[in-house]
Amino acid sequence: MLKLSNIHVKYGHVHALRGISLEVQKGQIVSLLGANGAGKSTTLKMISRLVQPSKGEYEVTGTNMLKKSSSDVVKAGIIHCPENRRVFPLLTVQENLKIGALHRNDKGQIKKDFERVFTYFPRLKERLHQKAGTLSGGEQQMLAIGRSLMGNPSVLLLDEPSLGIAPILVKEIFEIIKTINKEGTSILLVEQNAHMAMEISDYSYVLENGVIALEGNSQELKNNDRIRQLYLGA
User: Fold this and answer.
1) Strand, helix or coil at 114?
2) Is the torsion defined by CA of 177, 180, 181, 182 positive or negative?
3) Is the pLDDT of residue 233 over 70?
4) How far is CA 117 from the centre of its chain?
5) Per-residue b/e over 198-227, b at no fewer than 16 CB within 10 Å?
6) Which residues are registered as beta bridge partners of 18?
7) What's the pLDDT score for residue 132?
């Protein structure tokens, strides 16, 4: 479905990604793990066409996406839920959700997707006319994911959904991510909480200094001594 091959990204003299290759197949949750600065967010920005690779190939269902714009990527069903939530603080919850569907014309399905979001996140319906900036951090994360779902993604790019959220809400959000996946959305999950990410994902890649250092079935990788020492605190 989504495939990167030998992707290189440079920021001036900094070689942020050095030949990474990864795939997200239909129906999968794929986690991308690594320390700060490893290149995880850069990978998602490249997929969303916010940064340009210097080398490599990027395809979605066989279509070359390197010749496409960010808006083309969205229309192809690749929706990015960014790090730090990035909600519009002066707009209401309802207005933020509507922004997620701006590129769509299927009004009937948009209405159904509103209800779908409220099924996942009932608190958003309770706060529908509340300004996003007044929500708690966890509620803002719910809104950011809900806004992304309003884009009707085939692949959802989630960047650090647990960042800055109370532990009790982290567990709730990860359960919702699993449900979203079971209902048909493939997910590429960037996450520093390696234990939670590997618990819900099918396949994992570990980035170190812009290179894929390890990859494999998530449950098998959890038992890898290097992973346990570096990321699982064992």
Assistant:
1) helix
2) positive
3) no
4) 16
5) bebbbbbbbbeebebebbeebeebbebeeb
6) 8
7) 96
